[in-house]
Amino acid sequence: MENKFNNYLGQAKILVIDDEPDTLEIIRRQLENDYEIDTALSAKIAFEKLNQNKYHIVFTDVVMPDIDGFEITKKIKKQWPIISIVMISGKASVEMAVQAMKLGVEEFIEKPIEDLDLLKLIIEKILKSKWQAEEINRLHRLLAQGFDRTNIIGNSLAIQQVMEKVKRIAVLETTILISGETGVGKELFAELIYKNSKRKDKKFVIVNCGSLPETLLESMLFGHKKGAFTDAVRDKIGYFQEADGGTLFLDEITETSQAFQIKLLRALEKGVIRKVGDDKDIEVDVRIIAASNQSFEEEVEKGNFREDLYYRLNVITIHIPPLRERIEDIKLLANTFVRTFTEKYKKTNLIISEPAMSILLTREWKGNVRELKNAIEHAVALSGHDKIVPEDLPDHIYQSSDFLNTPIFNILQLPFPIAKNKFEKIYIEELLNKTNGDVTKAAEISKIKRQKLYEKFKKLDIDPKQFRIK
Predict the structure, then answer these.
(1) Within 13 A of 389's CA, how many CA atoms are on the CB side?
(2) Which of 10-19, 65-74, 92-101, 440-449 has the lowest mean pLDDT?
(3) Is 230 helix (H, G, I), strand (E, B) or coil?
(4) Paired strand residues for 289
(5) Can you give the pLDDT at residue 315?
(6) Rounded to the nearest 5°, which phi and psi values hold at 351?
(7) Residue 409 pLDDT > 60, yes or no?
(8) What DSSP state is assigned to residue 69?
């Protein structure tokens, strides 16, 4: 996927609009080795080029001789809405930045642009966002072609990539290993594979190997004959026979013993099982999907999981990413769970407040989707308002949230440009606290030039001397 994005970067085309030839030349030299760059000294020239070419990003100055940057932005957004716009101004103000953001400008930067590398970072960020959106749309279109994705919630690129792989392998007859941390939804993805397989009209049988005692596991999977052991008062078929013609999902398979693993390997290789207490083999036709929250490779290396069984199962592997690696799914999941639990608890029109959502978005979620779901159920059950507030969340989430103890928490309701300025002040003050007022160290850590830092000190009314230890 990284190679695909790099190819996308290399194909990007950028238009820079500014009435100062020197500015155009500086930007061109900085970017022309990485991107295709066009320049325009006026809005008229710019619109001629926009009519003739397809651009990904437009950089435009605010003060122009014919039409200003705001009018240019309005026209571009109306005629070419997919183009991203970065506005540049030598007379920047908070009000100007707010106006630009309301028009849909991606970034607002000040002149002179001393850190030219900043341009590359902005371009890469914008293009990455565009590429991810296009890739997600492509995968959505692919998955929409007769693919049942019921119960899988998530629009992140990470989840869409998993879904694309699932679609390709679901129709195959191979065994599949699913890896992922506790709570990521391995069982849901196993069921998704089953629902889109050729075996969807037969049974889908789920077995949690870690929850069954060793003596019971063999009997439950393979069945037993009457009298095979004390409590075997009648013949019983096992999960393998129950799933015959269908799919058997063996969750937490790394929790099984080596002795059981040998019997399971035989069943997979020969397509036969033997009931406990029987002397005859029974043919079965079962597709196996196995899962674990442990690393299969590490368990093999430790001697806990048989290498031959691992290779027999490991025809295709799917890894479900943890929730912290797909933060963009948290809001969608949380709102979906709210709708689910408002029905359960007979509550209506309940939504998550911005402060509560901010806590959800900044939590690590070691328990993944399962932990988030439980947190939302707790919040819905306890909420006494029309909004879920931070105090409605479980105590271990609300009280341990570092986010609540930071000044950032107080600026989330502000428009982005104003919040950005406030954040800049907080960031620099924390930086000076960390370095005891040492501007040189602060510049090294922040990658902001000393001269630029001093300009920010003046602009934000910050005295670095106040941060030095007496």
Answers:
(1) 5
(2) 92-101
(3) coil
(4) 176, 249
(5) 93
(6) -130, 170
(7) no
(8) H
Are residues 333 and 369 in contact, defined by beta-carbon separation less than 8 angstroms? yes
Query: 218, 288, 215, 302: which is closest to 254 by C-alpha?
Result: 302
Q: What are 191's two structure tokens?
A: 């069921």
Contacts of 279 (CB under 8 A, 6+ apart): none
Structure tokens at 128: 């990455």
Q: How do beta strands 282-283 and 287-292 pair?
A: unpaired
The structural domains of the chain, ordered by start, are: 2-134 (3.40.50.2300), 157-321 (3.40.50.300), 325-405 (1.10.8.60), 409-467 (1.10.10.60)
Amino acid found at 367: G
Q: What is the pLDDT of residues 156-178, one digit of tens each?
A: 888 988 988 998 899 999 999 99
Bridge partners of residue 453, in order along the sequence: none
Q: Can you list the pairs that 343-350 forms with residues at least 24 positions away whose Cβ atoms lie under 8 Å?
A: 344/377, 344/380, 345/380, 345/381, 347/380, 347/383, 349/386, 350/380, 350/383, 350/386, 350/387, 350/388
Q: Is 459 left (phi over 0), alpha (psi -120 to 50) or beta?
A: alpha
Cα distances (angstroms) measured from residue 267 to each of 125, 285, 357, 375 = 51, 10, 48, 41
Is pTM beyond 0.90? Reply is no
The tokens describing 12, both together, are 């990007």
**Which residue intervals of 196-283 are DSSP H helices?**
214-222, 239-242, 258-270
Residue pLDDT, tens place only, 42-89? 999 999 999 999 999 999 998 888 888 899 999 999 999 889 999 888
Question: Helix (H, G, I), strand (E, B), or coil: what is residue 419?
Answer: helix
Using alpha carbons, select from 329, 353, 350 the residue that is nearest to residue 340.
350
- Interhelix angle 439-446/450-460, rounded to 10 degrees, is 100
Q: What are the tens digits of pLDDT across the range 342-352?
A: 999 988 889 89
Instruction: Provide the residue type at 104 as one letter.
Output: G
Scored b (16 or more CB within 10 A) or e, 20-53 reads eeebbebbeebbeeebebbbbeebeebbeebeee
Q: What is the C-alpha to C-alpha distance for residues 123 and 129, in angstroms, rounded to an integer?
A: 10
Amino acid (1-letter code) at residue 304: N
Interatomic CA distance for residues 75 and 282, integer angstroms: 73
Structure tokens at 386: 């029309």
**pLDDT of 105-162, one tens digit each?**
888 888 777 777 778 888 888 888 888 777 776 666 655 566 677 778 888 888 988 9
